[in-house]
Design brief:
With 457 residues, the chain is of the alpha/beta class. The chain is 40% helix and 18% strand. The chain has helices at 15-36, 46-54, 74-87, 116-135, 143-157, 194-197, 201-208, 225-238, 284-299, 304-313, 337-350, 368-372, 398-404, 415-428, 440-451, and strands at residues 64-69, 92-95, 107-109, 112-113, 162-166, 183-186, 218-220, 242-244, 250-256, 261-267, 272-279, 321-325, 328-332, 356-361, 381-384, 409-411, 433-438. β9 and β10 (261-267) form a beta hairpin.
């Protein structure tokens, strides 16, 4: 099918002029947001509900929300779905986290980041409300709650048609769960954030199922029987139809090269097929993510032509991203066991029997051995670095996991230095690939170093 629709950004502006006019104020705004991180991760809806009351409840005024949760793939599904809506000439917002290179990435309208001036203005407007909450004796909102509230007001004031909202963590008591969505998507459920969400798949699924709302369709690619039982029970309890990949819709005839994938989407419950859909994101797991976005778009009544165009146009950096061919450098933000399983499967599928040097960095609160046992058998050597986060912990101990699996390693603390060391090592070893993987915080610094991305300022 011809893909004639051109995706155009919304309200383009001179980014350099924006930086010149608002640079110092924007830097101060980022410091304010960073200061809000001292309140840590504090799940619950009470603080953001009060904050939104003080903001005249912008989340209840006209915007159609699409809520995306799950352990892995939330960002990719959000990118696919927002691109489809843009192709359908809907004014579409996207709220996602974390960002790679700029905090402004978290707030997009028709693909364009919020301007520095707009973000500064939004934060200045919210500061008195936070002070009022403090005067009331209320708990202070966390950084993510402030970020969510700003997104809801910004999208409402810009009169978007749709806002794709990515869950931060969990679902039921995540700050994004103040919205009433048109539909919900739970990509999958795997072991992650166990200290907050639960210690087995069923417990985690129960938390994530909190975004399923009464009478609103829900979609999932979860395959675990125990997880599906939890999601099914939740949907039945609230009276929401639940559509499952493999039962209600499916992916067939998938083929790939090193730059794209093509597949057929089968809508089993409606007896229809969309052949030759194309995406640029690599890996079999991205076919599931694309299928979720297509199923949701069809539920919304989006034209088939826009689905084809949106999928083909969607981009999501840092997910099996080949940033250089000679030498081959691949970036992937696999940061938990399920992510490492998907990455390992993709390497076996796309680049079998290659000699691989890797730069690895994972947060201390991840099950690093359980995750890396999938990847390490594919590696020849590794460089271990420290994730630039207060959650980095004993980063050097990652080397012990490498040694356990017989992978020689080096310790290089700073991410840019580790990337340089990895490139040298790959050249010395005549490796076929330099793989950079782990925490998105590490990946962001590595990508910026490789591509010359300027600091967020």
């Amino acid at each position: 099918m011809e893909k004639q629709i051109e995706l155009k950004p919304y309200n383009t502006y001179d980014d350099n002029l924006d930086k010149e006019q608002w640079g110092p104020q924007y830097a101060a705004a980022l410091r304010f947001l960073e200061d809000c991180t001292k309140f840590g991760i504090n799940l619950g809806l009470g603080r953001i509900e009060r904050l939104l009351q003080l903001m005249d409840e912008p989340h209840k005024a006209g915007v159609k929300y699409l809520h995306i949760g799950g352990t892995n793939g939330k960002g990719s599904v959000s990118a696919f779905l927002s691109a489809i809506l843009r192709a359908a000439e809907q004014k579409c917002a996207l709220f996602s986290s974390p960002h790679l290179h700029s905090y402004r990435e978290r707030y997009r309208i028709n693909g364009e980041m919020i301007s520095r001036g707009e973000l500064v203005a939004q934060i200045e407007r919210i500061k008195p409300l936070l002070a009022q909450m403090q005067a009331e004796g209320a708990e202070q909102p966390t950084e993510f709650e402030v970020s969510t509230a700003l997104a809801l007001r910004y999208f409402n004031e810009r009169c978007v048609d749709y806002a794709v909202m990515e869950v931060g963590m969990g679902g039921e008591i995540d700050s994004t769960n103040v919205i009433l969505p048109e539909l919900s998507i739970i990509t999958n459920v795997a072991m992650d954030h166990m200290d907050y969400l639960g210690h087995n798949p069923a417990e985690i699924a129960a938390v994530k199922s909190g975004i399923i709302k009464a009478g609103r369709p829900a979609f999932t690619a979860a395959a675990d029987a125990e997880v599906l039982a939890v999601l099914t029970d939740k949907a039945a309890a609230v009276g929401a139809p639940l559509y499952v990949l493999g039962r209600d819709f499916a992916v067939t005839d998938a083929v790939h090269d090193e730059g794209s994938q093509t597949f057929t989407f089968c809508y089993l419950r409606k007896g229809m097929e969309l052949p030759d859909l194309q995406i640029s994101l690599l890996g079999a797991h991205q076919l599931n993510n694309a299928a979720l976005a297509v199923a949701a778009a069809l539920e919304l009544g989006i034209d088939v032509e826009a689905i084809y165009a949106g999928l083909a146009a969607a981009r999501w950096p840092g997910r099996l991203e080949v940033v250089c061919d000679e030498p081959m450098i691949v970036l992937d933000g696999a940061h938990n066991t399920a992510g490492m399983q998907a990455l390992s499967a993709a390497i076996r599928e796309y680049w079998p029997n290659r000699k691989i040097v890797a730069v690895l960095g994972m947060l201390a609160d991840k099950e690093r051995r359980e995750a890396l046992q999938n990847l390490l058998p594919l590696l020849d050597k590794a460089v271990i670095c420290r994730v630039p986060s207060y959650r980095a912990g004993d980063w050097e101990s990652l080397g012990e996991v490498c040694a356990e699996f017989g992978v020689p390693y080096e310790l290089v603390e700073e991410v840019p230095d580790a990337v340089d060391a990895g490139m040298v090592l790959a050249a010395e070893e005549n490796a076929d690939m330099l793989l950079i993987s782990g925490s998105l915080y590490m990946l962001a610094d590595a990508r910026a170093h490789l591509l010359g991305v300027a600091a967020d300022e």
